[in-house]
Amino acid sequence: AKPFYCAAIDLGATSGRVILGTWAKNRLTLREVHRFPNALRSAGGHDYWDIPGLWQEVQTGLRAAVAALPKGATLASVGVDTWGVDYVLTNDAGRIVFPTHAYRDARTQAPMEHLKNTRAAYDRIYAATGIPAVFYNSSFQLAETVASCPAITDLATRCLFLPDYFNFLLSGQMANGLSIASTTQLLDVNGDDWSRPALDYFRVPPVWLTKPVRSGHKLGRLRTVLSSAKDPALQDTQVIAVPGHDTTCAYDAMPAAADGADIFLSSGTWSLVGFESNQPLLGAEALAARVANDRTGRGEYRPLVNVIGLWLLEGTLKDFASRPKNDREWAALIKAAAKIPSVAALDPASAGDNVAGATLSSRRGTQAQLRKDTLLDVTDPAFANPPSMKAAIDAQLKRRGLKAPRDLAGYVRLICDSLGRGHADVIKTFEKLSGRTFKRILMVGGGSKNTLLCQATADASGLPVHSFALEGSVVGNLANQLIALKAVKNLAAFRALHAADLKQTIYQPKV
Ligand code: LRH
Protein backbone atom coordinates (compact mmCIF):
# COMPACT_ATOMS: atom_id res chain seq x y z
CA ALA A 1 0.00 0.00 0.00
CA LYS A 2 1.12 3.54 -0.72
CA PRO A 3 2.18 5.69 2.27
CA PHE A 4 -0.09 8.51 3.43
CA TYR A 5 1.43 11.96 3.98
CA CYS A 6 -0.47 14.34 6.28
CA ALA A 7 0.42 17.71 7.79
CA ALA A 8 -0.43 18.55 11.39
CA ILE A 9 -0.63 22.21 12.35
CA ASP A 10 -0.38 22.43 16.14
CA LEU A 11 -0.60 25.90 17.69
CA GLY A 12 0.27 26.36 21.35
CA ALA A 13 0.25 29.49 23.47
CA THR A 14 4.05 29.60 23.61
CA SER A 15 5.04 27.83 20.38
CA GLY A 16 3.59 26.38 17.21
CA ARG A 17 4.74 23.64 14.85
CA VAL A 18 3.97 22.06 11.54
CA ILE A 19 4.77 18.38 11.31
CA LEU A 20 4.75 16.11 8.33
CA GLY A 21 3.42 12.70 9.31
CA THR A 22 4.04 9.62 7.20
CA TRP A 23 1.88 6.54 7.68
CA ALA A 24 3.44 3.51 6.07
CA LYS A 25 3.21 -0.17 7.02
CA ASN A 26 1.05 0.69 10.02
CA ARG A 27 3.68 2.99 11.48
CA LEU A 28 3.62 6.72 11.99
CA THR A 29 6.81 8.73 11.57
CA LEU A 30 7.03 12.45 12.25
CA ARG A 31 9.19 15.10 10.72
CA GLU A 32 9.09 18.56 12.21
CA VAL A 33 9.29 20.92 9.26
CA HIS A 34 8.63 24.20 11.02
CA ARG A 35 8.61 25.43 14.62
CA PHE A 36 8.06 29.00 15.75
CA PRO A 37 7.55 30.93 18.98
CA ASN A 38 4.16 32.35 19.93
CA ALA A 39 3.36 34.92 22.60
CA LEU A 40 0.51 37.14 23.57
CA ARG A 41 1.07 40.84 22.93
CA SER A 42 -0.16 43.56 25.24
CA ALA A 43 -1.44 47.01 24.34
CA GLY A 44 -3.44 49.46 26.44
CA GLY A 45 -3.74 47.05 29.34
CA HIS A 46 -5.13 44.17 27.23
CA ASP A 47 -3.62 40.99 25.81
CA TYR A 48 -4.01 39.88 22.19
CA TRP A 49 -2.81 37.21 19.77
CA ASP A 50 -1.11 38.06 16.51
CA ILE A 51 -3.46 36.09 14.25
CA PRO A 52 -2.01 37.22 10.87
CA GLY A 53 1.48 36.42 12.22
CA LEU A 54 0.36 32.89 13.11
CA TRP A 55 -1.20 32.44 9.67
CA GLN A 56 2.08 33.47 8.07
CA GLU A 57 3.89 30.79 10.10
CA VAL A 58 1.27 28.19 9.15
CA GLN A 59 1.85 28.94 5.46
CA THR A 60 5.62 28.76 5.90
CA GLY A 61 5.16 25.40 7.61
CA LEU A 62 2.95 24.00 4.86
CA ARG A 63 5.47 25.03 2.22
CA ALA A 64 8.16 23.30 4.24
CA ALA A 65 5.96 20.19 4.49
CA VAL A 66 5.60 20.11 0.69
CA ALA A 67 9.34 20.57 0.28
CA ALA A 68 9.93 17.61 2.61
CA LEU A 69 7.73 15.21 0.59
CA PRO A 70 9.50 12.51 -1.39
CA LYS A 71 9.58 13.22 -5.11
CA GLY A 72 6.21 12.63 -6.77
CA ALA A 73 4.36 12.22 -3.45
CA THR A 74 1.24 14.23 -2.63
CA LEU A 75 -0.01 15.66 0.66
CA ALA A 76 -3.24 13.79 1.45
CA SER A 77 -4.55 16.11 4.14
CA VAL A 78 -3.98 18.80 6.70
CA GLY A 79 -5.50 19.26 10.18
CA VAL A 80 -5.33 22.06 12.75
CA ASP A 81 -5.36 21.90 16.53
CA THR A 82 -4.81 24.84 18.92
CA TRP A 83 -5.09 25.77 22.57
CA GLY A 84 -8.64 26.07 23.85
CA VAL A 85 -11.22 28.83 24.19
CA ASP A 86 -9.95 31.74 22.04
CA TYR A 87 -11.83 32.89 18.96
CA VAL A 88 -12.02 35.19 15.95
CA LEU A 89 -15.15 37.23 15.23
CA THR A 90 -15.74 37.69 11.51
CA ASN A 91 -18.37 38.92 9.09
CA ASP A 92 -19.88 36.65 6.43
CA ALA A 93 -16.96 37.29 4.13
CA GLY A 94 -14.57 36.06 6.80
CA ARG A 95 -13.09 39.46 7.58
CA ILE A 96 -11.86 39.89 11.14
CA VAL A 97 -14.07 42.48 12.83
CA PHE A 98 -12.67 42.37 16.37
CA PRO A 99 -9.16 41.78 17.67
CA THR A 100 -8.55 38.35 19.20
CA HIS A 101 -7.89 38.69 22.91
CA ALA A 102 -5.60 36.20 24.61
CA TYR A 103 -7.34 34.14 27.26
CA ARG A 104 -5.10 35.41 30.07
CA ASP A 105 -6.43 38.95 29.57
CA ALA A 106 -7.88 40.00 32.93
CA ARG A 107 -11.05 41.30 31.25
CA THR A 108 -13.04 38.20 32.26
CA GLN A 109 -12.72 38.72 36.02
CA ALA A 110 -15.94 40.74 36.39
CA PRO A 111 -18.28 38.43 34.41
CA MET A 112 -16.71 35.39 36.10
CA GLU A 113 -17.15 36.77 39.63
CA HIS A 114 -20.71 37.71 38.76
CA LEU A 115 -21.56 34.14 37.75
CA LYS A 116 -19.79 32.61 40.72
CA ASN A 117 -21.68 34.90 43.09
CA THR A 118 -25.07 34.09 41.59
CA ARG A 119 -25.46 30.59 42.94
CA ALA A 120 -28.68 29.60 41.18
CA ALA A 121 -27.41 30.83 37.80
CA TYR A 122 -24.07 29.09 38.30
CA ASP A 123 -25.74 25.76 39.10
CA ARG A 124 -27.99 26.17 36.08
CA ILE A 125 -25.09 26.96 33.71
CA TYR A 126 -23.08 24.01 35.04
CA ALA A 127 -26.06 21.67 34.62
CA ALA A 128 -26.51 22.97 31.06
CA THR A 129 -22.88 22.96 29.89
CA GLY A 130 -20.87 20.81 32.34
CA ILE A 131 -18.16 23.47 32.38
CA PRO A 132 -17.16 25.30 35.58
CA ALA A 133 -16.27 28.99 35.83
CA VAL A 134 -12.64 29.28 34.80
CA PHE A 135 -11.28 32.73 34.02
CA TYR A 136 -10.40 31.87 30.42
CA ASN A 137 -13.76 30.44 29.26
CA SER A 138 -14.93 31.75 25.88
CA SER A 139 -18.30 32.43 27.54
CA PHE A 140 -16.86 35.14 29.82
CA GLN A 141 -14.72 36.50 27.02
CA LEU A 142 -17.68 36.78 24.64
CA ALA A 143 -19.88 38.27 27.38
CA GLU A 144 -17.23 40.91 28.02
CA THR A 145 -16.81 41.67 24.32
CA VAL A 146 -20.55 42.13 23.80
CA ALA A 147 -20.90 44.23 26.97
CA SER A 148 -17.93 46.52 26.28
CA CYS A 149 -18.49 46.89 22.51
CA PRO A 150 -22.25 46.48 21.91
CA ALA A 151 -21.88 47.40 18.22
CA ILE A 152 -20.13 44.07 17.74
CA THR A 153 -23.50 42.34 17.37
CA ASP A 154 -24.00 44.34 14.14
CA LEU A 155 -20.47 43.88 12.86
CA ALA A 156 -19.87 40.21 13.51
CA THR A 157 -21.90 37.41 12.02
CA ARG A 158 -19.67 34.46 12.91
CA CYS A 159 -17.64 33.26 15.86
CA LEU A 160 -14.90 30.91 14.77
CA PHE A 161 -12.73 29.38 17.47
CA LEU A 162 -9.04 29.33 16.58
CA PRO A 163 -8.92 25.91 14.87
CA ASP A 164 -12.17 26.79 13.07
CA TYR A 165 -10.68 30.06 11.84
CA PHE A 166 -7.48 28.48 10.51
CA ASN A 167 -9.59 25.75 8.88
CA PHE A 168 -11.55 28.52 7.21
CA LEU A 169 -8.39 30.17 5.89
CA LEU A 170 -7.23 26.82 4.55
CA SER A 171 -10.51 25.55 3.09
CA GLY A 172 -12.87 28.51 2.70
CA GLN A 173 -15.44 26.66 4.85
CA MET A 174 -16.73 28.08 8.11
CA ALA A 175 -17.56 25.40 10.66
CA ASN A 176 -17.39 25.05 14.44
CA GLY A 177 -15.70 21.86 15.65
CA LEU A 178 -17.11 19.79 18.52
CA SER A 179 -14.06 19.38 20.76
CA ILE A 180 -13.11 23.06 20.74
CA ALA A 181 -16.80 24.00 21.16
CA SER A 182 -16.83 22.00 24.39
CA THR A 183 -14.18 24.25 25.92
CA THR A 184 -16.39 27.33 25.63
CA GLN A 185 -19.01 26.80 28.39
CA LEU A 186 -21.64 27.32 25.69
CA LEU A 187 -22.19 23.74 24.42
CA ASP A 188 -25.10 21.60 25.65
CA VAL A 189 -23.57 18.94 27.90
CA ASN A 190 -26.43 16.56 27.10
CA GLY A 191 -26.22 16.89 23.33
CA ASP A 192 -23.88 18.07 20.64
CA ASP A 193 -25.30 21.47 19.82
CA TRP A 194 -25.09 24.85 21.52
CA SER A 195 -26.90 25.42 24.81
CA ARG A 196 -29.61 28.04 24.41
CA PRO A 197 -29.73 28.86 28.17
CA ALA A 198 -25.96 29.42 28.17
CA LEU A 199 -26.02 31.56 25.00
CA ASP A 200 -28.83 33.64 26.52
CA TYR A 201 -27.11 34.03 29.88
CA PHE A 202 -23.83 35.18 28.31
CA ARG A 203 -25.70 37.23 25.65
CA VAL A 204 -23.95 35.50 22.76
CA PRO A 205 -25.93 35.88 19.51
CA PRO A 206 -26.91 32.31 18.50
CA VAL A 207 -26.38 33.20 14.80
CA TRP A 208 -22.65 33.47 15.46
CA LEU A 209 -22.41 29.69 15.86
CA THR A 210 -23.39 26.65 13.83
CA LYS A 211 -23.96 23.07 14.94
CA PRO A 212 -20.48 21.68 15.65
CA VAL A 213 -19.01 19.10 13.30
CA ARG A 214 -17.28 15.97 14.54
CA SER A 215 -13.73 14.93 13.97
CA GLY A 216 -13.20 13.52 10.49
CA HIS A 217 -15.52 16.03 8.81
CA LYS A 218 -14.01 17.01 5.47
CA LEU A 219 -14.04 20.76 5.00
CA GLY A 220 -12.92 20.65 1.39
CA ARG A 221 -9.80 21.00 -0.66
CA LEU A 222 -6.90 23.16 0.42
CA ARG A 223 -7.47 26.55 -1.19
CA THR A 224 -4.89 28.12 -3.40
CA VAL A 225 -3.97 30.54 -0.66
CA LEU A 226 -0.41 29.34 -0.60
CA SER A 227 1.88 30.30 -3.41
CA SER A 228 2.85 26.65 -3.57
CA ALA A 229 -0.77 25.53 -3.74
CA LYS A 230 -0.35 25.29 -7.48
CA ASP A 231 2.15 22.59 -6.65
CA PRO A 232 0.90 19.19 -7.88
CA ALA A 233 1.61 17.85 -4.37
CA LEU A 234 -1.27 20.01 -3.06
CA GLN A 235 -3.84 19.45 -5.78
CA ASP A 236 -5.89 16.94 -3.82
CA THR A 237 -5.06 17.95 -0.26
CA GLN A 238 -8.12 17.68 2.00
CA VAL A 239 -8.63 20.01 4.94
CA ILE A 240 -9.94 17.69 7.66
CA ALA A 241 -11.57 18.82 10.90
CA VAL A 242 -9.56 16.93 13.52
CA PRO A 243 -10.33 17.55 17.21
CA GLY A 244 -9.45 21.24 17.16
CA HIS A 245 -8.58 21.26 20.86
CA ASP A 246 -4.93 20.37 21.42
CA THR A 247 -5.69 18.60 24.70
CA THR A 248 -8.21 16.33 22.96
CA CYS A 249 -5.57 15.47 20.36
CA ALA A 250 -3.02 14.76 23.11
CA TYR A 251 -5.48 12.41 24.86
CA ASP A 252 -6.23 10.64 21.58
CA ALA A 253 -2.50 10.01 21.12
CA MET A 254 -2.12 8.08 24.38
CA PRO A 255 -2.13 4.29 24.27
CA ALA A 256 -5.00 3.85 26.71
CA ALA A 257 -6.26 0.37 27.55
CA ALA A 258 -9.92 -0.44 26.95
CA ASP A 259 -10.64 -1.06 30.66
CA GLY A 260 -11.28 2.62 31.50
CA ALA A 261 -8.69 2.48 34.32
CA ASP A 262 -6.28 4.99 32.79
CA ILE A 263 -5.90 8.56 33.95
CA PHE A 264 -4.63 10.91 31.24
CA LEU A 265 -2.23 13.67 32.15
CA SER A 266 -1.22 16.14 29.48
CA SER A 267 1.49 18.06 31.28
CA GLY A 268 2.78 21.32 29.88
CA THR A 269 2.04 24.93 30.68
CA TRP A 270 -1.20 23.45 32.02
CA SER A 271 -1.58 20.09 33.79
CA LEU A 272 -4.70 18.58 32.28
CA VAL A 273 -5.83 15.61 34.36
CA GLY A 274 -8.77 13.61 33.06
CA PHE A 275 -10.27 10.36 31.81
CA GLU A 276 -12.56 9.16 29.03
CA SER A 277 -16.19 8.35 29.71
CA ASN A 278 -19.55 7.84 28.05
CA GLN A 279 -21.17 10.12 30.59
CA PRO A 280 -20.44 13.54 31.98
CA LEU A 281 -19.66 14.11 35.67
CA LEU A 282 -22.21 16.64 36.91
CA GLY A 283 -23.67 17.83 40.21
CA ALA A 284 -22.56 19.93 43.14
CA GLU A 285 -19.44 17.91 43.97
CA ALA A 286 -18.20 17.92 40.38
CA LEU A 287 -18.77 21.67 40.23
CA ALA A 288 -16.93 22.23 43.53
CA ALA A 289 -14.01 20.20 42.16
CA ARG A 290 -14.06 22.30 38.95
CA VAL A 291 -14.62 19.29 36.68
CA ALA A 292 -14.85 20.37 33.02
CA ASN A 293 -16.77 17.94 30.81
CA ASP A 294 -14.77 18.51 27.64
CA ARG A 295 -15.64 16.36 24.62
CA THR A 296 -13.66 14.21 22.27
CA GLY A 297 -14.00 14.78 18.53
CA ARG A 298 -16.26 11.71 18.49
CA GLY A 299 -18.64 13.18 21.04
CA GLU A 300 -17.65 11.19 24.14
CA TYR A 301 -16.89 12.96 27.41
CA ARG A 302 -13.48 13.77 28.77
CA PRO A 303 -14.04 14.89 32.38
CA LEU A 304 -10.99 16.95 33.22
CA VAL A 305 -9.56 19.28 35.81
CA ASN A 306 -7.08 21.89 34.74
CA VAL A 307 -4.33 22.16 37.36
CA ILE A 308 -2.17 25.26 37.05
CA GLY A 309 0.71 23.23 35.58
CA LEU A 310 4.27 24.17 34.68
CA TRP A 311 3.09 27.74 34.15
CA LEU A 312 4.16 28.00 37.81
CA LEU A 313 7.71 27.03 36.94
CA GLU A 314 7.86 28.94 33.63
CA GLY A 315 6.82 32.09 35.51
CA THR A 316 9.20 31.54 38.42
CA LEU A 317 12.18 31.01 36.11
CA LYS A 318 11.72 34.54 34.76
CA ASP A 319 12.70 35.84 38.19
CA PHE A 320 16.05 34.04 38.24
CA ALA A 321 19.05 35.14 36.18
CA SER A 322 20.48 31.65 36.86
CA ARG A 323 17.66 29.94 34.91
CA PRO A 324 18.77 27.02 32.71
CA LYS A 325 19.54 27.83 29.08
CA ASN A 326 19.94 24.34 27.61
CA ASP A 327 19.13 20.67 28.25
CA ARG A 328 22.34 20.11 30.24
CA GLU A 329 21.60 23.01 32.59
CA TRP A 330 18.01 21.78 32.95
CA ALA A 331 19.18 18.32 33.91
CA ALA A 332 21.55 19.85 36.49
CA LEU A 333 18.75 21.96 37.98
CA ILE A 334 16.36 18.99 38.25
CA LYS A 335 19.16 16.96 39.85
CA ALA A 336 19.85 19.70 42.40
CA ALA A 337 16.12 19.97 43.14
CA ALA A 338 15.81 16.19 43.52
CA LYS A 339 18.51 16.24 46.22
CA ILE A 340 16.42 18.52 48.40
CA PRO A 341 14.30 16.38 50.72
CA SER A 342 10.67 16.88 49.87
CA VAL A 343 9.37 18.44 53.08
CA ALA A 344 12.50 20.52 53.33
CA ALA A 345 11.84 22.20 50.02
CA LEU A 346 11.05 24.94 52.48
CA ASP A 347 13.85 26.13 54.69
CA PRO A 348 14.08 23.21 57.16
CA ALA A 349 15.07 25.49 60.00
CA SER A 350 11.82 27.36 59.75
CA ALA A 351 9.50 24.66 58.44
CA GLY A 352 8.64 23.66 62.02
CA ASP A 353 6.78 26.80 62.95
CA ASN A 354 5.19 26.72 59.55
CA VAL A 355 3.03 23.71 60.11
CA ALA A 356 -0.05 24.95 61.88
CA GLY A 357 1.89 26.05 64.93
CA ALA A 358 3.45 22.65 65.60
CA THR A 359 7.14 21.92 65.13
CA LEU A 360 8.13 19.49 62.45
CA SER A 361 9.61 17.03 64.89
CA SER A 362 6.75 17.10 67.34
CA ARG A 363 4.03 16.92 64.77
CA ARG A 364 2.37 13.51 64.66
CA GLY A 365 0.98 13.69 61.14
CA THR A 366 1.55 11.22 58.39
CA GLN A 367 4.31 12.07 55.98
CA ALA A 368 1.70 12.80 53.33
CA GLN A 369 -0.23 15.18 55.56
CA LEU A 370 2.95 16.95 56.55
CA ARG A 371 3.83 17.42 52.91
CA LYS A 372 0.44 18.70 51.99
CA ASP A 373 0.67 21.35 54.66
CA THR A 374 4.02 22.55 53.43
CA LEU A 375 3.16 22.42 49.75
CA LEU A 376 1.68 25.17 47.65
CA ASP A 377 -2.06 25.32 47.19
CA VAL A 378 -1.92 25.11 43.40
CA THR A 379 -5.58 26.09 43.05
CA ASP A 380 -4.80 29.66 44.21
CA PRO A 381 -6.30 32.02 41.56
CA ALA A 382 -3.41 34.43 42.23
CA PHE A 383 -1.26 32.19 40.00
CA ALA A 384 -3.37 32.82 36.85
CA ASN A 385 -1.37 35.73 35.42
CA PRO A 386 0.66 37.51 38.12
CA PRO A 387 3.25 40.18 37.25
CA SER A 388 5.81 38.02 39.13
CA MET A 389 5.15 34.32 39.74
CA LYS A 390 7.87 34.11 42.39
CA ALA A 391 6.25 37.00 44.27
CA ALA A 392 2.83 35.31 44.01
CA ILE A 393 4.27 32.05 45.39
CA ASP A 394 6.10 33.89 48.17
CA ALA A 395 2.92 35.78 49.05
CA GLN A 396 0.93 32.55 49.43
CA LEU A 397 3.66 30.97 51.55
CA LYS A 398 3.85 34.07 53.75
CA ARG A 399 0.08 34.17 54.19
CA ARG A 400 0.22 30.56 55.40
CA GLY A 401 3.16 31.24 57.68
CA LEU A 402 5.58 29.31 55.48
CA LYS A 403 9.06 30.41 54.43
CA ALA A 404 10.04 30.81 50.80
CA PRO A 405 12.61 28.41 49.30
CA ARG A 406 16.22 29.60 49.35
CA ASP A 407 17.11 29.20 45.70
CA LEU A 408 15.81 28.18 42.29
CA ALA A 409 16.32 24.47 43.00
CA GLY A 410 14.14 24.90 46.10
CA TYR A 411 11.35 26.46 44.02
CA VAL A 412 11.61 23.66 41.44
CA ARG A 413 11.26 21.07 44.20
CA LEU A 414 8.35 22.87 45.79
CA ILE A 415 6.54 23.36 42.48
CA CYS A 416 6.99 19.76 41.30
CA ASP A 417 5.90 18.30 44.65
CA SER A 418 2.93 20.66 44.82
CA LEU A 419 1.81 19.81 41.29
CA GLY A 420 2.19 16.09 42.08
CA ARG A 421 -0.14 16.58 45.03
CA GLY A 422 -2.51 18.66 42.87
CA HIS A 423 -2.67 15.83 40.30
CA ALA A 424 -3.29 13.24 43.02
CA ASP A 425 -6.10 15.28 44.59
CA VAL A 426 -7.89 15.44 41.24
CA ILE A 427 -7.56 11.68 40.70
CA LYS A 428 -9.03 11.02 44.14
CA THR A 429 -11.99 13.25 43.30
CA PHE A 430 -12.53 11.45 39.99
CA GLU A 431 -12.53 8.08 41.76
CA LYS A 432 -15.07 9.31 44.28
CA LEU A 433 -17.40 10.87 41.72
CA SER A 434 -17.18 8.20 39.01
CA GLY A 435 -16.93 5.10 41.20
CA ARG A 436 -13.95 3.95 39.14
CA THR A 437 -10.60 2.74 40.40
CA PHE A 438 -7.74 4.03 38.31
CA LYS A 439 -4.67 1.87 37.84
CA ARG A 440 -2.22 3.90 35.78
CA ILE A 441 -1.43 7.49 34.89
CA LEU A 442 -0.50 8.04 31.24
CA MET A 443 1.54 11.21 30.86
CA VAL A 444 2.57 13.19 27.79
CA GLY A 445 3.77 16.72 27.11
CA GLY A 446 6.82 18.72 28.17
CA GLY A 447 6.26 17.76 31.82
CA SER A 448 6.62 14.06 31.03
CA LYS A 449 10.36 14.70 30.60
CA ASN A 450 10.56 16.21 34.09
CA THR A 451 11.59 13.20 36.20
CA LEU A 452 10.91 15.03 39.43
CA LEU A 453 7.35 15.88 38.43
CA CYS A 454 6.66 12.33 37.21
CA GLN A 455 7.96 10.83 40.46
CA ALA A 456 6.11 13.38 42.62
CA THR A 457 2.89 12.50 40.77
CA ALA A 458 3.45 8.76 41.29
CA ASP A 459 4.30 9.26 44.98
CA ALA A 460 1.36 11.52 45.75
CA SER A 461 -1.20 9.38 43.91
CA GLY A 462 0.17 5.93 44.73
CA LEU A 463 -0.19 5.03 41.03
CA PRO A 464 2.48 4.19 38.46
CA VAL A 465 3.14 7.00 35.99
CA HIS A 466 3.81 5.88 32.41
CA SER A 467 5.50 8.81 30.74
CA PHE A 468 5.73 8.81 26.97
CA ALA A 469 8.21 10.56 24.74
CA LEU A 470 5.45 11.68 22.43
CA GLU A 471 4.39 14.86 20.59
CA GLY A 472 0.89 14.27 21.95
CA SER A 473 -1.23 16.87 20.15
CA VAL A 474 0.52 16.30 16.85
CA VAL A 475 0.12 12.52 16.98
CA GLY A 476 -3.58 12.81 17.90
CA ASN A 477 -4.09 15.35 15.12
CA LEU A 478 -2.48 12.99 12.58
CA ALA A 479 -4.33 9.95 13.94
CA ASN A 480 -7.66 11.67 13.32
CA GLN A 481 -6.65 12.58 9.76
CA LEU A 482 -5.63 8.97 9.10
CA ILE A 483 -8.97 7.71 10.41
CA ALA A 484 -10.85 10.17 8.16
CA LEU A 485 -8.74 9.05 5.19
CA LYS A 486 -9.62 5.42 6.07
CA ALA A 487 -5.93 4.57 6.40
CA VAL A 488 -6.73 3.41 9.97
CA LYS A 489 -10.03 1.90 11.12
CA ASN A 490 -10.63 3.82 14.31
CA LEU A 491 -8.91 5.34 17.34
CA ALA A 492 -8.65 2.05 19.24
CA ALA A 493 -6.86 0.51 16.24
CA PHE A 494 -4.51 3.49 15.98
CA ARG A 495 -3.69 3.38 19.70
CA ALA A 496 -2.95 -0.34 19.53
CA LEU A 497 -0.70 0.01 16.46
CA HIS A 498 1.07 3.09 17.75
CA ALA A 499 1.63 1.71 21.28
CA ALA A 500 4.16 -0.77 19.93
CA ASP A 501 6.41 2.09 18.76
CA LEU A 502 6.23 4.20 21.88
CA LYS A 503 9.07 4.66 24.31
CA GLN A 504 7.84 4.85 27.88
CA THR A 505 9.38 5.36 31.30
CA ILE A 506 7.50 3.97 34.28
CA TYR A 507 7.72 5.74 37.66
CA GLN A 508 6.55 3.50 40.50
CA PRO A 509 5.27 5.21 43.65
CA LYS A 510 7.95 5.20 46.36
CA VAL A 511 6.05 6.34 49.42
C1 LRH B 1 -3.89 23.75 26.62
C2 LRH B 1 -5.30 24.25 26.57
C3 LRH B 1 -6.14 23.74 27.75
C4 LRH B 1 -7.09 24.89 28.01
C5 LRH B 1 -6.19 26.07 27.72
C6 LRH B 1 -6.85 27.36 27.46
O1 LRH B 1 -3.16 24.20 25.53
O2 LRH B 1 -5.92 23.88 25.38
O3 LRH B 1 -6.79 22.52 27.54
O4 LRH B 1 -8.18 24.82 27.14
O5 LRH B 1 -5.31 25.67 26.68
UniProtKB/TrEMBL annotation:
A UniProt-annotated Pfam family: FGGY_C
Record-level GO BP terms: glycerol metabolic process; rhamnose catabolic process
Keywords: ATP-binding, Disulfide bond, Kinase, Nucleotide-binding, Rhamnose metabolism, Transferase
Domain Carbohydrate kinase FGGY N-terminal: 5-247
This protein's GO CC annotations: cytosol
Family of the protein in this entry: Belongs to the FGGY kinase family.
Gene Ontology molecular function: any one: glycerol kinase activity
Span of domain Carbohydrate kinase FGGY C-terminal: 265-484
Protein's name in the database: Rhamnulokinase
InterPro entries the UniProt entry points to: ATPase_NBD, FGGY_C, FGGY_N, Rhamnulokinase
